[in-house]
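Predict fold of Xanthine dehydrogenase accessory factor; 346 aa.
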Amino acid sequence: MENLDVMVLRALRDWRLAGRRALLVTVVRTWGSSPRPVGSIMALREDGAVVGSVSGGCIEDDLIARYTQPDAHDALPRDRAVQFAKYGITADEAHRFGLPCGGTLELLLEFDPDAQLLEQLVQQLDAGRLVHRRVGLDDGRVQLQPAQAPAELVLDDRALTNTFGPEYRMLIIGAGQMSEYLATMALFCGFAVTVCDPREEYRGSFDVPGARLVASMPDDTVAEMQPDARTCVVALTHDPKLDDLALLQALETPAFYIGAIGSRRNNAARRRRMIEHLEQTEESLARLRGPVGIHIGSKTPPEIAVSVMAEVLAVKNGVRLPRDMDVAHRKDQEGLAGAGSACAVG
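Predicted 3D structure, encoded as tokens:
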């Protein structure tokens, strides 16, 4: 499943290149609870077609009605470049538009964004680049600038700047049953998924539509993918010959998450092995996670995959998890000393 922002921008580009009128809607401020975070975008075509979302649906319905019915008393004016709209100011409005109690959000509406600039933006995202898109609030003029790191939306008196990036990527080492569950979840979360396994007996039964399956050695796959700050690497084979070198290769990259499945004992053994035989130190292994996942009492492969995916998303979203959710810490507290599920995931 493609990154949602890229999907919205691609659809908007196609509509504008075809000469269709369209609206780009961006969530620029929220107060209280909000169904969608700041920076979320939606594209709305003149006939009511929608890609993306800014709420649970009611605000979209209101925007569709106001945009597709130009003669209505509250129709959106089409002679402007940009316009702000606010929803949920009163309790009655919040209830009407399905916003949580006390929730208010403000939107920036861009009328008929330039098709060629949208084409340039999509091309840069397809090439794996991170891009700042700056919109002037007086005239709607758009500027595209290269970005060095992901950034939050910035809104001031003169412009809105939203940062767009390519898809998040997940490299899964191993094509076993758990890999199928994790790959499926990652795809639904908008990750581009590559599964690497040189073992034919595992590749033959792997079946997850949308995931790229490769037979190269894992460390070669890491080198080929060149992980960036929007990439995570998860080793699920339990085989040091496949996992260790790939993990070390990944640790030399800016990948935001690098980890391996296994019990506390197996993960401790991996660290000793890397230090004693692969010239690593505790400092060089500081970013290596294991056992991966959060402690949710998971035992079965799908539950363990949920645990791993939850931790990946927490790290991606900058959420610091409580220590009680750390698998190794909880197992130590429970005094199980390596017991529990075969993979020792919470």
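The longest helix spans residues 301-316.
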